[in-house]
Amino acid sequence: MSRLFALLTLIFSSIGSYGHNNTTPETTSNILASFTVYAGAYDRINTPVFANLSGIFLKTESYELQLVETTNGANREVASQVESSYQHSLWWVLDGKTPAGTKRHFELRHKTPSAASKKKVSLQDTGEAINIQVAGKNVLAYHYGLTPVPKGVDPLYSRGGYIHPLWSPEGEVLTRIQPEDHYHHYGIWNPWTKTEFQGREIDFWNLIKGEGTVKVKSVSSRVEGDVFASISAVHEHIDKKAAKGAQVALNEQWDIRVWNTDPENKIWLVDFTSTMSCATTSPLTIKEYRYEGFGFRANKAWDDKSATLLTSEGHDKSNGNGTRARWCDVKGPSKAGTSGVLFMTHPSNYNFPEKIRIWPVGMNKGKENVFFNFNPAQDRDWVLKPGKDYSLRYRMMVYDGEVDARTADVYWNDLAHPPHVAVRTFSQDKKQKRVLVYTKNGEGYVHENIPYSIAAIKKLGKENGFLVDASDDPGVFTDKNISRYDALIFSNTNNEVFDTQEQRDVFKRYIQSGGAFVGIHSACGSERSWPWFWKVLGGKFHRHPPRQDFDVKILDKDHPSTRFLPDTWHIKDDECYYMKHLNPDIHVLAAADLNTVKDDKKAEYPGEVFGDSFPTTWCHEFDGGRQWYTALGHKPEHYEDPLLLKHILGGIFWALEMK
């Protein structure tokens, strides 16, 4: 199920509040890490950001954690929240406006514990629903209980698993459930209208058909904090027409997160993620259809005369139906004058930017007719295969007043292109991590990318607080010298990379004593006569098709080297490596989609052995050490690609953390 927000095993610490002056002594021994947040190419407004806390000492029995922003020598305490799942992350809000091209500096420290305070983003359980509040004001209610229908209405319309009400900051109810014209409309909800499962067509949207419904199995996580509150719930899409009785056809996990992004509470920011997986060994196909998926039914007062709609492409209620949009602003009358929701879709979503379904002017006789729907299957089928997770991510900015197109673009860019956070850690003994980039090539092909990869990793080290040495001399492999390094990075090594057996023995002892190893691209072609090395790296190079564009599917969205990548990573002009002697212990993080690879010899290898995918990136633990490998990165210019560099940085961080 979904790991996008990693809500199943969260542990949170609440830290400070906005605008509070730092009172902790400013000593180096008190600083755990420093963070530099780069706005990049986009202006920022009250942007949620996070930092990877890998390798940072977080012991809190005698101390609390405190985040401060440092500006011209002055310190300001900032509310933050620690999330612990696959790894520790620290979340906070880059409050106010941060112009494009600028950067801001923060420090994480220990401080003396203070009296516990009430969480600013809180949950209230009514027994039927969970209300999420910011500073005591209602934001939304998630209904897990089965909601009864009005008197005289067919009980087939009854269901749970939806959001209603969604309130504006001034308290206006923006959603509606069970309207007389469509009793199956439930505020904000996410069923599928036209699906095919085990040879049957199942409609999970139009409940009156009796073909399918959606039930809440459990609420698996509830989190409160100063920066955000979140819930995670498991929904089941039930096939009611199965031969042996009703069965679950599709599992879906909802992750809802409400951010404390605005100190004045003039807007709400809500993240919604749906992660789906087949419940049986049978695939489920979401068929092409005009509307289904993430939907919104507005309150009764909104109609053709009173409500307006604007998309990122400039379309409105009269001509927006069936068009594609990155965002869509929907607003109507309220006690505050005007209130609305800016709906945003994420680039990782299937068929991005999705087509939208709206009720155009004149629909429903022009009355009570504001409906909006992001629909990834409006113009094509979407086949969900067993054993895989499929995620859809959306963000809602809820407001009173007006939002112009430029502001909408700023908020969408925050979602789609979040700021980069560089981390510098300070261990208790102040010793920085040090890595060795090793690039020796034996007789055979030598990649011209080597100096570019060295320069890129040195830049990563400078920006992220670890020291980098580089060498192509196998003489560096002595026990005394190699013990200085926290990780060895074999960047585009190839063929025989050691000159003597003693050098091989030094490398082996390093791994067996807990040493970390990172392999990049042709490192898999190193030491081709040494089976133990194949096991360390995870496999042995066999061959590759001609260099080309191809797709890589991200299989683990929790790992620091992949969690920021889209579900499908479009690789440009690289080599799709095939390997043999794969270590069965590797944990595959990403795999090439062989349906996108042109290869005249595919039937020879990998053939039917690997089907439609082949591993490109993995991590594992072998013989005492920790190892991470990526097959990507053939050309010099690849080492200027921000995604590949962040991918490699995540692998280095993982190796250093697990060491």
Automatic annotation (TrEMBL):
Native species: Agaribacillus aureus
Sequence ranges assigned to domain ThuA-like in this UniProt record: 434-655
SUPFAM superfamilies: Class I glutamine amidotransferase-like (SSF52317)
Signal sequence residues: 1-19
Coiled coil regions in record: none
Region listing for Disordered, in residue ranges: 311-330
UniProt keyword annotation of Hydrolase present: no
Protein name: PmoA family protein
